[in-house]
Design a protein that fits this description.
The protein has two domains: about 140 residues, no CATH class; about 280 residues, 3-Layer(aba) Sandwich (Rossmann fold). The protein is about 50% helix and about 15% strand. It is built from 15 helices and ten strands. A six-stranded mixed β-sheet has the order 6-7-8-3-9-10, with helices on both faces. A four-stranded antiparallel β-sheet has the order 2-1-4-5, with helices on one face. Helix 2 packs antiparallel against helix 3, helix 3 runs antiparallel to helix 4 and helix 9 runs parallel beside helix 11. The radius of gyration is 29 Å and the shape is globular. It starts with a helix and ends with a helix.
Length: about 450
């Protein structure tokens, strides 16, 4: 008898899985997704959440479902595992089941809204999911009011395909792509970015939200490697990272300084971390005093960090990275929270650092007030596939002509998406710059 009930239960589960799979397959097809994903457990839970416009709930639902499968498998091993393990797995399985009900509830509500159906269908979904999925998937009277916002990776602006030759004194960036896996999907963050920055140049890194500025910086510094070649003064940052990390300085927007340390102690600690281990103690102390003088911090070297003004604190955070005398200096919004006069003074200091033969790359949301201090500008923009692309790189004055704009703010507006309050012309300028690059390459070759 137990064998009969067991076989019946197995047949019921298999039938339910088949009905669910067919239903999910057709629902995904109706929503403009990839129907085949409706056949894969865990993945399909997430895909259905996209149809319901409930992506965040779907991520959590998929994770819970994966753990449910594991817990159910352990419980199924009952005769072969310790009783305590079986009990714990059973309790966990019940807890996961209750949790999944919460996410199912939210996702099914979303489905009802997208398909324009009354919420009474919600309870049918919870009680008879395979049957309801089959009905919604096969019946022509159940049609979604909107399609999935599927990103076509091939829909972006055309690529230049040009790889620039490395320069002896400066930074050469050849980024073919930077990708990541985001919940079963391969996502392009950056693509086709090639440029050379000579030493002594101060460069503005401009781009709207999501254009890839941080990803670009991380790729260049080697913090997050891309499919790329990053060469600084004839040295490959990726292959020689252990040595090159001392030659690259990065100042984040938010500093990590301890308020109860003095300025001198803060710089001394930075020297311990940033200078190679072979540097003597006397040389470290000498370097700390040099940097104190260089950044106008000598007179307050015994002051506590928490007592510093905003401008002094920013100078100290820059000095901490400058302690290793890097050839490449990258700063993320160093003027954040500073008034115009103080910010101007800070950027003039960065200009003087560039004039020492350094490369200085700066991200700032208020570029126009200090744009006269920059040599070049890198403009990153999201193309149609929402991938960070190079829309322009070159002298500041020529950027105005290229975009036919009078300010950096207007340039930014021209490449921002329409739903971000911009003109949505990113692909136009990405392709215009790619054509320009190809023409230069053709004449050179």
């Amino acid at each position: 008898m137990d064998q009969i009930f067991g076989e019946t239960n197995l047949t019921s589960e298999v039938l339910g899985w088949i009905m669910n799979s067919i239903g999910y397959f057709m629902i995904l097809k109706k929503c403009g997704g990839k129907p085949i994903l409706g056949l894969i457990p865990v993945v399909r839970e997430y895909q259905i959440s996209l149809c319901a416009d409930k992506e965040q709930e779907g991520r959590k639902f998929a994770i819970v479902t994966a753990f449910e499968i594991v817990a159910a498998f352990i419980v199924g091993l009952g005769p072969y595992i310790h009783r305590t393990v079986e009990v714990i797995a059973a309790i966990l399985l019940f807890a996961l089941y209750l949790t999944s009900l919460v996410y199912q509830f939210r996702i099914y509500i979303g489905l009802c809204q997208v398909f324009g159906r009354r919420k009474r269908w919600l309870w049918l979904w919870l009680i008879m999911e395979p049957i309801v999925a089959l009905i919604w998937g096969l019946s022509k009277s159940f049609e979604p009011r909107k399609q999935l916002d599927v990103i076509d990776e091939d829909a972006g602006a055309k690529e230049s395909g040009v790889t620039v030759k490395a320069i002896d004194d400066g930074l050469t960036v050849n980024i073919e792509s930077r990708t990541t896996i985001d919940f079963f999907k391969k996502k392009y963050l950056l693509k086709d970015i090639h440029l050379r920055i000579p030493k002594g140049h101060m460069v503005l890194l401009l781009g709207g939200s999501g254009a890839g500025k941080t990803t670009f910086v991380n790729a260049v510094t080697g913090y997050e490697k891309a499919d790329a070649s990053i060469v600084l003064n004839e040295q490959n940052i990726y292959t020689e990272y252990g040595k090159m990390k001392y030659d690259v300085g990065f100042v984040p927007q938010l500093d990590l300084m301890r308020g109860n340390d003095t300025v001198y102690r803060t710089l001394a600690d930075a020297a311990t971390l940033r200078l190679p281990s072979g540097v003597s103690m006397s040389r470290r102390r000498k370097r700390v005093h040099e940097v104190l003088e260089e950044f106008g911090l000598a007179s307050i070297q015994h002051s506590l960090v928490e007592k510093l003004s905003g401008g002094q604190r920013k100078r100290l955070s820059i000095a901490m990275e400058f302690i290793s005398d890097p050839s490449l200096f990258i700063l993320d919004e160093p003027d954040s929270g500073l008034d115009g006069v103080v910010a101007r003074g800070l950027f003039e200091k960065l200009r003087s650092i560039a004039d020492m033969g350094k490369i200085v790359i700066v991200i700032t949301h208020t570029p126009d007030r200090v744009i006269d201090l920059f040599d070049d500008v890198i403009v990153l923009a999201k193309d149609a596939s929402r991938t960070g692309r190079l829309a322009y790189y070159g002298p500041v004055d020529k950027a105005y002509d290229f975009f036919d704009k009078d300010s950096m703010e207007d340039i930014l507006l021209s490449i921002n998406q329409i739903d971000e309050g911009g003109e949505g012309r990113s692909d136009e300028f990405i392709e215009k710059y790619a054509d320009k690059t190809l023409e230069i390459e053709r004449k050179a070759g």
